[in-house]
Amino acid sequence: xGNTINLKIFRxxxxxxxxxxxxxxxxxxxxxxxxxxxxxxNVLDEQDxxxxxxxxxxxxxxxxxxxxxxxxxxxxxxxxxxEYRGTLTIEPLPGLDIIKDLVVDLEPFFxxxxxxxxxxxxxxxxxKENIQMQEDVDLIEPHIKCILCAVCETSCPISWTSRxxxxxxxxxxxxxxFNRDTRDAGGKERLEVVRGEDGVWRCRTIFRCTEYCxxxxxxxxxxxxxxxxxxxx
Length: 233
Ligand code: SF4
Ligand code: FES
Known about the structure:
Blueprint: E1 4-11, E2 22-29, H1 36-46, E3 66-69, E4 72-75, E5 87-91, E6 98-100, E7 103-104, H2 107-115, H3 134-140, H4 151-155, H5 157-161, H6 169-179, H7 187-194, H8 208-212, H9 219-231
Helix pairs in contact: 6-7, 6-9
The structure holds iron/sulfur cluster and FE2/S2 (inorganic) cluster.
Residues 146-152, 170, 173, 213-215, 217, 219 line the site of iron/sulfur cluster (SF4).
């Protein structure tokens, strides 16, 4: 018999008669290179077809498989099961409403995203291709790598306590990314959205977003940049 791990998984089905959340433990046989997402598939395919979780690319690109692994928000497809021994507790992302099991309602997260015009705003109608040189790309690297996974937002204690107000670290990172893009002319408008107390000033520089971001984006640094920009017009 090879190695095994116990997955203690948060369960909740609001449409089921059993309304209270509970934990259910499944034992999974592990193999080298196995990710947490693959272990969840083992449960789904071989033990319990009622388990719900989000995924798509399985390659740390789509951002849909974020969940809480032993108390830390991480991508299930990017996390090796070999990092854990004995029992791994798997829960949904914190601070958001639960739809079912490990699936949360990301609408508040994407509402914040929509608020900041997350696209390039051209200055008038361009009459030729807007070419970027490497130094232009360097300005927005690695912020351009954001995959909208919500790990930064759900790891941030300020976002937990001010969910209705704080625009959140992802939206602020996106403002940084678009405002520094040499093809964009919408910076002033975006800065107006985030310059108030529910924008950059609600960040208390706790650094959890930066610590947990699976794409290693220096989010806190970007927010500090926007704080300076919002003071010195
Ligand atoms: S900034 Fe990082 S943690 Fe936040 S949504 Fe983007 S990739 Fe995820
Ligand atoms: S399944 Fe796409 S990021 Fe994990």
